[in-house]
Structure formats: C-alpha cells, structure tokens
C-alpha cells in the first residue's frame, strides 16, 4: 500500500543504526534465522537488495553470475555497501509510485505493494534479527509494526510453503503487535543469542 512508503525511511534509519553496531567479531554470531549467522544474513540482504530495487523501479532484475548461497558479498567494505543499498531502497520505496501497479521480482509478476512490504519487512524483521544476534534491542514504530504484522499475516501460509517464513510461533496473550508479527513469520520474540 502506497501509504506504507512513509514508513520506509524511518525503518531504514533504525536498520542502519543496527548495521553500524555490528563489529567484525560479531559476523559469526548466530541469528534468529536458523540457517544464517550474521555474515550470511548480511550476504542475504546484499544479494536480494538489487532485486528489490529493480522491482521497485519496474526494471529488469540484475544479472548475477551466482546464487545467494555462492555469493560472497560481505567483504571489508560490507557496511558501506549495505548503507548505500539501504539508501537506494529508501529512494525507490520512499515514493508512492514504487508501490503502485504491477512489477516483477525476478520472473515472478506481482503487485508492487507486495514488494514494498517485503522491503519494509527486510528492514524491520532482519533489523530485529541482527540486533538480537549482537545482543541489542530495536524500537519499531507502532505504524511499522502494524504494517509488517498485516503483511506477515496475509502472506503467512504462502511464505511458509515457500520456506520464507518458519512455522508460526504462538506468542503470549497480551503480546505487542510487533511480537505478533515476529511470531507470524516464525520468529520467537523471546529469542536470545
């Protein structure tokens, strides 16, 4: 939804703050995403960022020589690369136009608003993953929490069938909206490193 465009910049700013808190010794720390340590999660973000950007611009996907598993994108300059990529995603998805109409993520055509919600989710959910991995907390604005919860609930079954989300985690009664969003994506809000 194009009104979510206004949520992108604040979510990206919080995400960038988390990135800047990651030290070299923390790259091997495990994350709430069972298959990723911090380095692998950063690699995931750096790999898929250009695909999301292209979808937001309604442009062809990037030409890549290898898949995510074989990409080695977390070099000495990973922070600079991640911050530049974050800024590009804000430039694209911070405008309502990126959320309108149809687009393609790779070869899959879909509403552009779904891709926009993916970008917001990348900043919010993976920001939380990285923060937890390095023993920090992250504040999620109530509006962003509502948006990512609505998206996670709507996409839940399909995302689980595609192995994008884990099995839903039942959260405590009285859980916050963001905790419910985490649970909907298969994350345990109480996870610690």
Automatic annotation (TrEMBL):
This is TIGR03086 family protein. InterPro entries: CHP03086, DinB/YfiT-like, Maleyloyr_isom, MDMPI_metal-binding. Transmembrane segments: none annotated. It holds the Pfam family MDMPI_N. It comes from Amycolatopsis oliviviridis. It comes from the Bacteria. Residues 10-131 form the Mycothiol-dependent maleylpyruvate isomerase metal-binding domain.
């Amino acid at each position: 939804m194009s009104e979510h465009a206004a949520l992108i910049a604040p979510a990206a700013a919080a995400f960038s703050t988390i990135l800047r808190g990651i030290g070299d010794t923390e790259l091997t720390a495990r994350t709430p995403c069972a298959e990723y340590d911090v380095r692998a999660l950063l690699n995931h973000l750096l790999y898929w960022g250009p695909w999301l950007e292209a979808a937001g611009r309604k442009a062809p996907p990037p030409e890549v020589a290898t898949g995510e598993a074989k990409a080695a994108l977390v070099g000495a300059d990973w922070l600079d690369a991640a911050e530049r990529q974050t800024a590009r995603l804000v430039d694209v998805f911070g405008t309502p136009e990126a959320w309108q109409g149809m687009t393609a993520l790779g070869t899959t055509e879909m509403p552009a608003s779904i891709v926009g919600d993916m970008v917001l989710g990348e900043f919010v959910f993976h920001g939380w993953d990285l923060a937890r991995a390095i023993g920090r907390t992250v504040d999620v604005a109530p509006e962003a929490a509502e948006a990512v919860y609505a998206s996670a609930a709507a996409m839940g079954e399909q995302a689980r069938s595609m192995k994008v989300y884990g099995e839903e985690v039942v959260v405590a009664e009285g859980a916050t909206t963001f905790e419910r969003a985490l649970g909907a994506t298969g994350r345990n809000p109480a996870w610690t490193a």
